[in-house]
Model the fold of this input.
Amino acid sequence: SQTIHQWPATLVQPVGSPLSLECTVEGTSNPNLYWYRQAAGRGLQLLFYSVGIGQISSEVPQNLSASRPQDRQFILSSKKLLLSDSGFYLCAWTHPGGEEQYFGPGTRLTVT
Amino acid sequence: KNQVEQSPQSLIILEGKNCTLQCNYTVSPFSNLRWYKQDTGRGPVSLTIMTFSENTKSNGRYTATLDADTKQSSLHITASQLSDSASYICVVSVYGNNRLAFGKGNQVVVIP
Done:
């Protein structure tokens, strides 16, 4: 069976510090991968998606970036965090060509 | 613009009672509609998925309906349990590009 992991579960970082969130998927090959942000009282906002290694599409211009160094690894990064980066970050995957998205457990990021 | 509106934003119900959540969308062209359950601090989990030709789908005590003509969907929870306390998110898929439009969710609190 397939599983999706996110690390860390919670994170408190000061403004201006770097960020690295990791997402890994097990039990499948060549998944499509997605990063979402969920702010309090708002819907999920798609940040990045990837259909393969090194292939990243950005949905929203911001100070975040994403990378896919391995087939089942998706990383969300920032060089300098802003207060507005606080939120709940969700990683999701689909089968290639599939539509059903499977979400990870999420990372709660608080920028202070 | 593809939008998904959910109502009520939040509600409190007594354990054992039924409730109905509403989702209206303007997504076009339509591919499918999903309802997700998101426990606090966790990733969303799929409850039901319906295509254009389906007008009802059940998953245990959860029953979703779809009226593609009026672009409305509902999620009915029967005999609510304390574990039903969560946010219920309506997600509509755009046909042809796998893009998703997310509602902000219905926050349900079940009290004993």
Remarks:
- Chain A touches chain B at residues 41-44, 46, 88, 90, 92, 94, 99-106, 108 (CB under 8 Å).
